[in-house]
Target: Murein DD-endopeptidase MepM/ murein hydrolase activator NlpD
Amino acid sequence: MLKGAENFAARHPRALTASVVSALSCFAVTAFGIAPMAPDAAELPKRTVVETLAPVDIEAQLDQLASHSIGLTRAEATRSSDTPDSLLRRAGAFDPAAAAFLRSEPLARRIFQGRAGRMVHVTADAAGLVQKIVVRFPAEKVEQQGSHFTRLSIERDGSRFTARTEAAPLQAQIALGSGSIRSSLFAATDDAKIPDSIASQMADMFSGDIDFHRELRKGDRFSVVYEMLTADGEPVTWDGGAGRLLAGEFTNNGRTYSAVYFKDSASGKASFYGFDGQSKRRAFLASPMEFSRITSGFAMRFHPIHKTWRQHNGVDYGAPTGTAVRSVGDGVVDTAGWQNGFGNVVHVRHSGDRTTVYAHLSKIDVKKGQRIEQGQRVGAVGATGWATGPHLHFEFRVGGRHMDPRAIARASEAITLPSYAKTQFLQTVASVKTQLAVAETMDGVSAAE
Model:
């Protein structure tokens, strides 16, 4: 039937058009017939208005369009083999003067210094002449690192170019991600395109629940909500580009743990808390480093230098030289210097006649008598003293007696949530629960909201 209608329309187009017009006319008449006329419509006054319209000046508009310069902006990542000419050419600009400026101006040369992959935004006109170049770098001032970035702007002014830098605040964007363990935590987060800094924070978040060195299982799952930093709306590529881990959920060996980052607005202190309000932070961290490989535990071992079986009174963490070492708890530095087989070593005295020891350091960042907080850097991994390779030797002593650091950390007292902050805390939990539910559906994916 439909095909017959199509054939009729093809053979009789004029008849079809007339029929449609007639039908529409009928509808119009019907509408007129049922629309009531105002009782005094015939008596309404009539007035004619005449207005003279000025003719549109087409020529003037064409002149304005012709004088307007259209700029096209393209973003290109720097390459290790780049020259100013090759970079501009990829961005669609053919400007020898701009290339010469990039070679000669000290600020402009920063574009090609350091590692490749830096995003360069080039604006050029229709003739391929550079009008503006914008590049973003990490903050130059130490106190602004992590919160600001440096914006380098190069602009054309006639036949000359100018370059200037300015500091601007980074913006945080909420990102979600999830994954499952097949071999290691970092391999799983890499697959999900979750930054390493977030993986380290996740290990910290659940360090009191899961021993990530020994208890991780194939098939374990995790979901995270975290901050992704942006500079002028562009994702930051340096230092992983991530801010703080806001919430996480980890299923280990069939048991699920949930936690949220919460900052007490009154005291300004922040920590990770379970959804039940119990703090994930204890008086002592489980590890003096964010994440590393245990090479020797608290047990008997064959000493690599003395070639005899001896009790190992601490835990050794294998890590590259220079890896940051942090204090596992609040305390006061008792020792900071050289000590025989320990090499560069730091002793920190804590409450309850407890002491922690950090040995074989390549660098010491604290002084004797200094009061330090949990998580504060005390030095860097090295191979000083009696060490066969770069690692940290870590000890925990109670009343002078050596104890297993991991057992002490798990048994240590928890930091409690103040009662006045519970209303604010519950609002935070309700918000992240929804985000984690969405993140859980993103298997092996990380994306910004």
About this structure: The radius of gyration is 34 Å. Residues 5-10, 12-18, 20-36, 292-311 have pLDDT under 50 and may be disordered. The first strand starts at residue 72 and ends at 77. The chain has three domains: 72-169, 172-283+424-448, 293-411.
